[in-house]
């Protein structure tokens, strides 16, 4: 393996290194190694614990989106559904509660402008994943209730039974032509009095379904709720609405199908003809299918969003670790540099960006080379009786270092002129030059 790497040219080595780096950061590989497929939780408990402590500062924006969905639902219901005291009271109460939740949630973004109790409450909600999830579920529940609560004030008289009595037949035999030829007024514009009932007529119950779909969108905006949690919540919403629609409210959808078909007929010579056989999928069958498909689509979207968020968290964690390693390496390199150069000299060279050749060499007169460490000294150092338990090794090291501190008289004159402070150390004999005075360099002027 080593021979293969030695035979590779530098370009191939770079390509191989980049390929390994790209593969290491591959999304699929990261997801398979760290994240479970269906639950989308981290395989390592410590990673899941760190991720659960992440604070989502955009929680106030999620509540604001839910409030916006609530406003849209109110506009639809007020426009389509007959007005009632239940509508007025419930919508005003929900508006007050949602506005309060939105106010407390947005305090976190500008905490210094509000009293400390409100700041503390806002931090408890936003900084805790459990508390923010509870508040989010409560907000979604209010939006969902506002989508179909007006169904309880609608007239649930069975139009099939009403028309069957008029024609003296069974409800199963009643069709759109019976309704069109009936003496009673069964128009889509009729707001009250359907089959003699006193409650308002809700002739367009499909708008309740549309509002429920909007409430499911409100569920999708809360990113701190896991995809499994969203799926469970959306399934509960779907189940509750389908139960309400199929049991007490099923006559609303049956009446709507019959009225829409009857009002689409055209009279021929002043009479309604029923020669054609009507084929239409009932609303009570289509509605569960539509909601199920919508829930499935939102769940897939939630999975994609959560998967991306968890991968971003992994990349952020890796970047943080790499940054810490880089800072540790930088500090270690600075310590090495300060062993070679004084701090002020090192700061001078690091103060601005320099070319590599400038840092590698520089032509200077009367300058000697000093080595910061002795190669393989740790292998040389051995504590034995022969070397006085290692004392002789240390003495040799001190002699080597002392040799670097000795400066000739000529250098002393040059350094003294530059305001360097030197201490006289004595005479040494140099072969071919005789005796030379030596000095120890104490400190120098500030480079800056």
Automatic annotation (TrEMBL):
Coiled coil: none
Keywords: ATP-binding, Lyase, Magnesium, Membrane, Metal-binding, Methylation, Nucleotide-binding, Phosphoprotein, Transmembrane, Transmembrane helix
Cleavable signal peptide: none
One cellular-component annotation, GO: plasma membrane
Domain Guanylate cyclase per the UniProt entry, residue ranges: 368-426
EC number: 4.6.1.1
GO function term, MF aspect, one: adenylate cyclase activity
Location in the cell: Membrane
Cofactor: Mn(2+)
The keyword rRNA-binding is annotated on this UniProt entry: no
InterPro entries: A/G_cyclase, Adcy_conserved_dom, Nucleotide_cyclase
Membrane disposition: Multi-pass membrane protein
Reaction equation(s) it catalyzes: ATP = 3',5'-cyclic AMP + diphosphate
Biological process per Gene Ontology, one example term: cAMP biosynthetic process
SUPFAM superfamilies for this protein: Nucleotide cyclase
PROSITE patterns: GUANYLATE_CYCLASE_2
Function: Catalyzes the formation of the signaling molecule cAMP in response to G-protein signaling. Mediates signaling downstream of ADRB1. Regulates the increase of free cytosolic Ca(2+) in response to increased blood glucose levels and contributes to the regulation of Ca(2+)-dependent insulin secretion.
Protein name, per record: Adenylate cyclase type 5
Organism name: Chiloscyllium punctatum (Brownbanded bambooshark)
């Amino acid at each position: 393996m080593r021979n293969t790497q030695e035979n590779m040219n530098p370009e191939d080595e770079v390509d191989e290194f980049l390929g390994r780096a790209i593969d290491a950061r591959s999304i699929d590989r990261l997801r398979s190694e760290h994240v479970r497929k269906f639950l989308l939780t981290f395989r390592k408990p410590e990673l899941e614990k760190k991720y659960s402590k992440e604070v989502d500062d955009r929680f106030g924006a999620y509540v604001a989106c839910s409030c916006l969905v609530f406003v849209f639902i109110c506009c639809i219901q007020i426009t389509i559904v007959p007005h009632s005291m239940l509508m007025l009271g419930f919508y005003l109460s929900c508006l007050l509660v949602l506005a309060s939740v939105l106010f407390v949630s947005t305090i976190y973004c500008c905490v210094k402008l509000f009293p400390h109790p409100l700041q503390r409450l806002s931090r408890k909600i936003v900084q805790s994943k459990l508390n923010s999830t509870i508040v989010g579920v409560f907000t979604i529940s209010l939006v969902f209730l506002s989508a179909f609560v007006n169904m309880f004030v609608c007239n649930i008289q069975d139009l099939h039974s009403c028309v069957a009595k008029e024609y003296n037949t069974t409800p199963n035999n009643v069709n759109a032509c019976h309704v069109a030829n009936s003496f009673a007024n069964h128009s889509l514009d009729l707001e009250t009095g359907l089959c003699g009932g006193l409650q308002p007529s809700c002739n367009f119950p499909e708008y309740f379904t549309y509002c429920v779909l909007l409430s499911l969108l409100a569920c999708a905006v809360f990113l701190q709720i896991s995809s499994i949690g969203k799926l469970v919540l959306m399934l509960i919403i779907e189940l509750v609405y389908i139960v309400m629609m199929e049991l007490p409210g099923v006559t609303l959808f049956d009446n709507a199908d019959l009225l829409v078909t009857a009002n689409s007929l055209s009279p021929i010579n002043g009479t309604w003809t029923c020669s054609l056989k009507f084929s239409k999928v009932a609303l009570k069958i289509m509605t569960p299918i539509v909601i199920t498909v919508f829930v499935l689509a939102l769940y897939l979207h939630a999975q994609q969003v959560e998967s991306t968020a968890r991968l971003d968290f992994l990349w952020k964690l890796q970047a943080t670790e790499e940054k810490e390693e880089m800072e540790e390496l930088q500090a270690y390199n600075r310590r090495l540099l300060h062993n070679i150069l004084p701090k002020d000299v090192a700061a001078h060279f690091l103060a601005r960006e320099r070319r590599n050749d400038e840092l590698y060499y520089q032509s200077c007169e009367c300058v000697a080379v000093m080595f910061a460490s002795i190669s393989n000294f740790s292998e040389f150092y051995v504590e034995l009786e022969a070397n006085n338990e290692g004392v002789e090794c240390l003495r040799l090291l001190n002699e080597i270092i002392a040799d670097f501190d000795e400066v000739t008289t000529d250098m002393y004159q040059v350094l003294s002129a530059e305001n360097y402070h030197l201490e006289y150390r004595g005479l040494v004999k140099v072969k071919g030059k005789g005796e030379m005075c030596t000095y120890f360099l104490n400190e120098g002027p500030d480079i800056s």
